[in-house]
Each structure stands twice: as structure tokens, then as C-alpha cells.
């Protein structure tokens, strides 16, 4: 293996890397104007003690065989050879397949495993299960946008059109007067993107817009959700009350004749129903500024003045992922669209509505002329699915019916779950409940680079290579650079890549040709690159040969400037370019959703009181948002992630008023708790968070003092011990993990060291 610097790519940026002893030297891609510091998480990751070195089998499973087992998460592991591991896995797949069919197998692997398009673990495991076993029970949607991705097609169009092909940052810098960002525009989120991100431009575009005079308004409990470069305003509402605030703003626009009635009449359906709801004609409750103020915690006069300042301006309304990751998360997404329509903005340069701007580095960018091919996943022989955030419900309640997007579905009885490239003990809620759910399985198989909590609950753990230890191609539909991801180091210990593992398992199950199609990894990379060449040739565009590309490490691809294409065409001629909704228009009222008869998500947007509300027992809102020092839980042991901790623990922010009342000083160890469990964290006292709210980011590896406890204590700081595992509504069944309620106190118990990165006893 050559030791010269080689080109590589990650979800947070492209870079040159060189191995020097036990660390990597990282040099960001020279064309990136604002490289992400997350790249430093790679420096000492290759040989970290947390890595999985050999195939491991949980002792209880090895000695007693498959079956439900309460020892998961609290058992020893036994090292086995790859030959033994392959035999165990192949035999178990054969047993479950023959006895229960694909309906007994869940293909998990939801996650951001690699920027490489071939070694994308989710695609690998799904292709394996389809081509080798005839299919699997699948999950749909994502934890990040589970509500919006189901709702938006009903009311305006596919989420990719609204988010990935929405209003561009370039257009904002040139035309927007007001950017009204519900949930903010935090740069920590936009510095990452699936498939890679070679140019971080959000900070620069916000600075350009601000210098031109754009008014950025961040509606969030956290001041940090808008960078200083935006020179913006911070509007702090009570968490989860954005829908009520928008209804209050709409009431002013209606009462004072500030709505664009011509736009509403031509381009929308359902505005009269919305007006009737706000005026109280539907149910007797008038939803005016006084009503909204009582819910949101801001003054009624402020809401009125705020509404008046929007009229006559080029306004862009954007709603972050965070808002729909909460109870009734559909409502602020829907109401953001209604507000933009009431102002007549959709389809105007720099105006209108876009979903999740700033949530990913993809959004607000231009699209490539053609996309890089994906690994085909084969045909799933069954149509059994769950919304991704309902996995614990499925495992705990087989045979139970549930609602989803107008369908009445039934949870299957899963015997075996196969996970590669994901960590559900990061992104799922109520981790004690999740542990109980995994204890119901016959077998859990995991491919992992390190001893995450998910690996510690598995029956068979197969050591996987890191992206740095294999070759691949990195690229994204909105990134004009395609990267040859060249190996930086040899595989750690006995680690193998997912493709090698699945190829051998497919061979033992008699389906090797169906899975590999006769290609090794390099063969697939050349095949996909050739497909890209053919796509570009149809547009009379040529790119270097594969050999040239691999040698130079990067190639630039042509792009289109078609942000907002669907809405722009619709505004220009709604008859010739109708929206892909039942009416062909923006649906302020959806007859389709109304026909589902869901009380928690009726036919037009509403305010619904969440079941979680601060009270005397749990007086604080907890915001469990995305971390700034890592992507989700990836490389939590990395240098940059560790630099954001204090004495190895996550940091929890709280307002000085609350800290004074609780006698908490900056740096104290505090305990957050509710009926689901307890979490320790280091206190950060700051005025960048509103009173009554605490913020603890997700991604700290779950480290319970007693893994079997009904109310576990995580000494590392994983907030999903505390979050509630319920669907956002019957329509979308999205994740509700962004907000919960807790009590906070200075910790007075025994303080034991964090052990999240120490492998389990073997």
C-alpha cells in the first residue's frame, strides 16, 4: 500500500489523506471554500481500540442457539474464525428463510455508512437479501424527514423537488428580502451530505445575502441555529409551537387584507376552509394573535407587527427537519407552505417555500446534468413494510395493525434482523424500550467497524472495513465533483468489506452469481463509471477514461441551474404545468388526507396540543438536536468529536436563569431524567438558549450503567434514553425524537468513567 497522499471522500467533504504511523494527515479538497472540521475525526480512527477486530458471537446465542433473550446488551462475546462465522450466518439465514420466508427477515441498515456509491451498506444488504433470500421486510422514509416525505406529495409535490430542487442559495443571495427559517439554518447540518460534499458554500451565500440586505429570521429555541454571517434575528418560541405562531400570523394577514387573494384563487385549493378554521367558524375557537401568544410565549402585538412586515416583501419560508421530528410534526411543514401561498410568493425568484434548506449540504445547490448510477438492489419478492421509526413497535407487537398514509397495515413477526452500516441505538427513541424490542428476535446480525451499542446487542458481529480501507467512487446528484476514493490503509485486523462478506454468504447459499453478476469491486466501479459515461455521451459530454479518472482522483461534471423548476413552471402556467397533487394545485385542504379520517392529522393544517408538556415534575423542554462535532453518531471516538466533550461526557446547554435557580455552575455534571431514564452530561451555562429549555445533542454512544435497567442511566449523554417513541401522526408515523420534557438537577450520585469506547468483555 502506497504511503503517498491519496484522494478520498466523506459525507462531510473530500480530502487527500496520508497515513503516518498511527494517525492520518488530512488535507481538505483545495476547491472547498469552507472545509468541515469533521474531517479531523479520521485522524486516529483507523486503529482505535473501539474497532471490531474479529468475528464475534454472543455467548448466550452461541451456547443456547437462536431465540428471544434478555441478555442482549449485557452478555459476553466469543471470538470465532471467519469460517465459523460464515457457517453460523449462512445456516441461520437458511433456517429462517425455510421456516418463515422473507416475512421473517428485517433488512435494517438505515444509515449514512459511506460516501462511496458502491460500498453503500444499505444497498449492499438489501441487494443481498433480495437476490439471495427472495426479499425482506423493509422500512420506508427516514428518521430525519419521515413526516415531511409523506405529507409533501399530498399537498405540493415530491420532497426531492421541494428540498433538493427548491430555491437555490445563489437565488437567495440575489433576490430574497426575507428568509423566514423555522428551525434555523445551522451550518453544522449543511456541512454534511449523503454521497459527499466537495464545496461548502452556505456560509458565503448567507454572507452575500446579508450584505445585500436580506433579513434572516431564525425561529428556534437556540440562537446557534443561525450563523453570525447571516446577521440575522433570533425569534425564540416555546419548542414545538411554530404551527400556532404561523396560525397567529395568518390571522393578521386575513384580518387586515394582506393576503394575495388572486394567487390563492388561481394556484391553491382549500383557502376558504383555512380561513374558517382560523376565524373559529369550524369549531368555535378563534385562532388570533392572542390565542397564538398564549401558546408560543411571545406577545400578541409582536405577532401582529411581525405579520405586517412580511407583506410586500420577497419572502422565502423554509421549515427545518427538526420541526417535523416532533408530535404533530406535519403541521408546521404544511403551515409553512400555507404562509408562503398566502403571501403569493411560490414561484417568484428568491421567494416562496422550500423544505429543509440548510438541513443537508444537498439543499439549495444545483443539480448535475446526469446522476451517477446506484448499485441495483434487485427485486424484493414481498411487499411488507414499516415506517422506519416504528421498528420497536414492530418487534414488540407482531400481528398488530397500524395506520400509515391511508393504509391499514400489520406488523410482521420478525425472527432475524440483518444490520449493516447503521446504529439504531443512536437514532431511535426510548432506548430501554428499543432494547426490549431487540430482545424479542431470534437473531440479530450486524456488520460494524466498531463496538457501537447496536453491535453490543447483536448475536453475531462481523468486523467491517472503514471507508478509508477500501476503494469506491464518491459523488452526489448536487456535487459537481466525482471522486475516486482510493484506499488510505489496509483493512484493520480481520475486517472485510460488506461486499466481500455478502459474496461469500451468497456463494454458500447457492446464489453467488445472482448477487455479484460476476464482478469484483473494481469491476462494479468500472461498470458504474461506464454507465455514467454513456449518460453523458447522450448529452455530447465526454469525461476521462476510468483509468485516467482513477489516477487523477477527481473529475468535474456539468450541472443545471434549475432550482425551483416545478414551482416556477406551475406559476408560469398552472394549466400547462400542474402540480402532481390530486387537484394539480397547492393543497391547503387535502381531500385525500381528509378521507383517511385521522383525528391527529385532518384535511387541513391545524394546531394539536402535544401530549408532552412541561409540568412541575418535568419542567424543562429538552431539545435533542443534531451534533456539531460528528455526523450523527459516526466516529464519536474521533478527535473532533472528543474535543466537544468534557471529561469524556457530552455537554448540555441551559440558560443562566435556570442554572442560577438550580445552583448549577458551568462544568458541573448534571442529571436529566424523566419516566424513561436518566442521562448525565456536563453543564454549559449560556444565554444562547431560551429559559426553560435544555439542549443535549444526539450521537453520544449509549453507555448505560446497568444495560438491563427499566429506567437506564447513560453516563455518556445519549438523549434518546429520554425521548418518546411514538409516531408523529397516523398519516406519516414519523419520528418524534426532537423534543421531550425532563427534570434537571446537579448530579449527586457515584460518577463512574465513560466506557462507551471500551469493547465488551470477551
TrEMBL record:
<dbReference type="GO" id="GO:0030288">
    <property type="term" value="C:outer membrane-bounded periplasmic space"/>
</dbReference>
<comment type="similarity">
    <text>Belongs to the prokaryotic molybdopterin-containing oxidoreductase family.</text>
</comment>
<keyword id="KW-0500">Molybdenum</keyword>
<dbReference type="InterPro" id="IPR041954">
    <property type="entry name" value="CT_DMSOR/BSOR/TMAOR"/>
</dbReference>
<dbReference type="GO" id="GO:0043546">
    <property type="term" value="F:molybdopterin cofactor binding"/>
</dbReference>
<dbReference type="Pfam" id="PF01568">
    <property type="entry name" value="Molydop_binding"/>
</dbReference>
<dbReference type="InterPro" id="IPR041460">
    <property type="entry name" value="Molybdopterin_N"/>
</dbReference>
<dbReference type="InterPro" id="IPR009010">
    <property type="entry name" value="Asp_de-COase-like_dom_sf"/>
</dbReference>
<dbReference type="GO" id="GO:0030151">
    <property type="term" value="F:molybdenum ion binding"/>
</dbReference>
<dbReference type="Pfam" id="PF00384">
    <property type="entry name" value="Molybdopterin"/>
</dbReference>
<protein>
    <submittedName>
        <fullName>Asp-tRNA(Asn)/Glu-tRNA(Gln) amidotransferase GatCAB subunit C</fullName>
    </submittedName>
</protein>
<dbReference type="Pfam" id="PF18364">
    <property type="entry name" value="Molybdopterin_N"/>
</dbReference>
<dbReference type="GO" id="GO:0009061">
    <property type="term" value="P:anaerobic respiration"/>
</dbReference>
<keyword id="KW-0614">Plasmid</keyword>
<dbReference type="InterPro" id="IPR006657">
    <property type="entry name" value="MoPterin_dinucl-bd_dom"/>
</dbReference>
<dbReference type="GO" id="GO:0009055">
    <property type="term" value="F:electron transfer activity"/>
</dbReference>
<keyword id="KW-0479">Metal-binding</keyword>
<keyword id="KW-0560">Oxidoreductase</keyword>
<dbReference type="InterPro" id="IPR050612">
    <property type="entry name" value="Prok_Mopterin_Oxidored"/>
</dbReference>
<feature type="domain" description="Molybdopterin oxidoreductase">
    <location>
        <begin position="51"/>
        <end position="507"/>
    </location>
</feature>
<dbReference type="GO" id="GO:0016491">
    <property type="term" value="F:oxidoreductase activity"/>
</dbReference>
<dbReference type="InterPro" id="IPR006656">
    <property type="entry name" value="Mopterin_OxRdtase"/>
</dbReference>
<feature type="domain" description="Molybdopterin oxidoreductase N-terminal">
    <location>
        <begin position="8"/>
        <end position="43"/>
    </location>
</feature>
<feature type="domain" description="Molybdopterin dinucleotide-binding">
    <location>
        <begin position="620"/>
        <end position="736"/>
    </location>
</feature>
Amino acid at each position: 500500500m502506497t504511503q503517498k497522499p491519496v484522494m478520498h471522500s466523506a459525507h462531510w467533504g473530500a480530502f487527500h489523506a496520508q497515513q503516518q504511523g498511527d494517525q492520518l494527515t488530512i488535507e481538505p479538497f483545495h476547491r472547498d471554500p469552507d472545509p468541515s472540521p469533521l474531517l479531523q475525526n479520521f485522524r486516529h480512527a483507523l486503529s482505535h481500540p473501539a474497532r471490531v477486530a474479529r468475528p464475534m458471537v454472543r455467548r448466550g446465542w452461541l451456547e443456547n442457539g437462536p431465540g428471544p433473550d434478555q441478555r442482549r446488551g449485557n452478555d459476553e462475546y466469543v471470538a470465532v474464525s471467519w469460517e465459523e462465522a460464515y457457517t453460523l450466518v449462512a445456516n441461520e439465514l437458511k433456517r429462517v428463510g425455510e421456516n418463515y420466508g422473507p416475512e421473517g427477515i428485517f433488512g435494517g441498515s438505515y444509515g449514512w455508512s459511506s460516501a462511496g456509491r458502491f460500498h453503500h451498506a444499505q444497498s449492499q444488504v438489501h441487494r443481498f437479501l433480495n437476490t439471495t433470500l427472495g426479499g425482506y421486510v423493509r422500512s420506508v422514509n427516514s428518521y430525519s424527514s419521515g413526516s415531511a416525505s409523506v405529507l409533501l406529495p399530498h399537498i405540493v409535490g415530491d420532497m426531492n423537488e421541494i428540498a433538493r430542487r427548491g430555491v437555490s442559495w445563489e437565488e437567495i443571495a440575489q433576490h430574497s428580502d426575507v428568509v423566514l427559517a423555522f428551525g434555523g439554518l445551522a451550518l453544522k447540518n449543511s456541512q454534511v451530505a449523503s454521497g459527499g460534499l466537495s464545496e461548502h458554500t452556505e456560509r458565503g451565500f448567507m454572507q452575500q445575502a446579508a450584505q445585500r440586505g436580506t433579513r434572516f429570521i431564525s425561529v428556534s429555541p437556540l440562537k446557534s441555529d443561525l450563523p453570525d454571517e447571516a446577521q440575522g434575528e433570533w425569534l425564540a418560541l416555546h419548542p414545538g409551537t411554530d404551527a400556532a405562531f404561523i396560525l397567529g400570523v395568518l390571522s393578521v394577514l386575513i384580518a387586515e387584507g394582506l393576503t394575495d387573494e388572486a394567487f390563492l384563487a388561481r394556484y391553491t385549493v382549500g383557502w376558504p376552509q383555512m380561513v374558517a378554521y382560523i376565524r373559529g367558524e369550524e369549531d368555535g375557537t378563534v385562532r388570533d394573535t392572542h390565542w397564538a401568544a398564549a401558546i408560543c410565549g411571545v406577545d400578541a402585538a409582536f405577532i401582529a407587527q411581525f405579520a405586517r412586515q412580511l407583506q410586500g416583501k420577497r419572502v422565502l419560508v423554509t421549515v427545518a427537519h427538526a420541526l417535523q421530528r416532533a408530535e404533530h410534526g406535519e403541521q408546521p411543514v404544511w403551515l409553512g407552505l400555507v404562509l408562503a401561498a398566502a403571501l403569493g410568493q411560490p414561484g417568484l425568484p428568491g421567494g416562496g417555500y422550500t423544505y429543509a434548506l440548510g438541513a443537508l449540504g444537498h439543499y439549495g445547490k444545483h443539480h448535475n446534468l446526469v446522476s451517477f448510477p446506484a448499485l441495483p438492489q434487485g427485486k424484493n419478492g414481498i411487499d411488507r413494510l414499516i415506517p422506519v421509526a416504528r421498528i420497536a413497535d414492530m418487534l414488540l407487537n407482531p400481528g398488530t395493525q397500524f395506520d400509515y398514509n391511508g393504509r391499514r397495515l400489520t406488523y410482521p413477526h420478525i425472527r432475524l434482523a440483518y444490520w449493516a452500516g447503521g446504529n439504531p441505538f443512536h437514532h431511535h427513541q426510548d432506548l430501554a424500550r428499543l432494547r426490549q424490542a431487540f430482545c424479542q428476535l431470534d437473531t440479530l446480525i450486524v456488520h460494524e467497524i466498531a463496538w457501537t451499542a447496536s453491535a453490543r446487542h447483536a448475536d453475531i458481529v462481523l468486523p467491517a472495513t472503514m471507508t478509508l480501507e477500501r476503494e469506491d467512487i464518491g459523488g452526489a446528484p448536487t456535487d459537481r465533483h466525482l471522486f475516486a476514493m482510493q484506499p488510505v490503509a489496509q483493512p484493520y485486523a480481520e475486517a472485510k468489506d460488506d461486499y466481500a462478506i455478502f459474496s461469500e454468504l451468497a456463494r454458500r447459499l447457492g446464489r453467488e452469481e445472482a448477487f455479484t453478476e460476476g464482478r469484483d469491486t473494481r469491476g462494479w466501479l468500472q461498470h458504474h463509471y461506464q454507465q455514467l459515461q454513456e449518460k453523458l455521451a447522450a448529452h455530447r459530454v465526454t469525461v476521462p477514461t476510468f483509468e485516467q479518472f482513477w489516477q487523477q482522483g477527481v473529475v468535474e461534471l456539468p450541472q443545471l441551474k434549475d432550482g425551483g423548476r416545478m414551482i416556477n413552471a406551475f406559476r408560469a402556467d398552472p394549466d400547462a404545468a400542474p402540480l402532481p397533487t390530486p387537484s394539480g394545485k397547492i393543497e391547503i385542504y387535502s381531500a385525500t388526507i381528509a378521507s383517511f379520517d385521522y383525528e391527529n392529522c385532518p384535511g387541513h393544517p391545524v394546531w394539536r396540543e402535544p401530549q408532552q408538556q412541561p409540568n412541575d415534575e418535568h419542567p424543562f423542554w429538552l431539545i435533542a438536536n443534531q451534533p456539531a462535532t460528528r455526523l450523527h453518531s459516526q466516529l464519536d471516538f474521533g478527535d473532533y468529536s472528543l474535543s466537544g466533550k468534557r471529561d469524556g461526557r457530552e455537554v448540555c446547554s441551559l440558560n443562566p436563569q435556570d442554572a442560577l435557580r438550580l445552583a448549577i455552575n458551568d462544568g458541573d455534571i448534571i442529571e436529566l431524567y424523566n419516566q424513561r431514564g436518566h442521562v448525565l452530561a456536563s453543564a454549559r451555562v449560556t444565554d444562547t438558549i431560551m429559559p426553560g429549555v435544555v439542549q443535549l445533542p444526539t450521537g453520544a454512544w449509549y453507555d448505560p450503567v446497568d444495560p438491563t435497567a427499566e429506567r437506564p442511566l447513560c453516563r455518556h449523554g445519549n438523549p434518546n434514553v429520554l425521548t418518546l417513541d411514538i409516531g408523529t401522526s397516523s398519516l406519516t408515523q414519523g419520528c418524534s425524537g426532537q423534543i421531550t420534557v425532563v427534570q434537571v438537577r446537579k448530579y449527586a450520585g457515584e460518577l463512574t468513567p465513560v466506557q462507551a469506547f471500551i469493547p465488551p468483555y470477551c
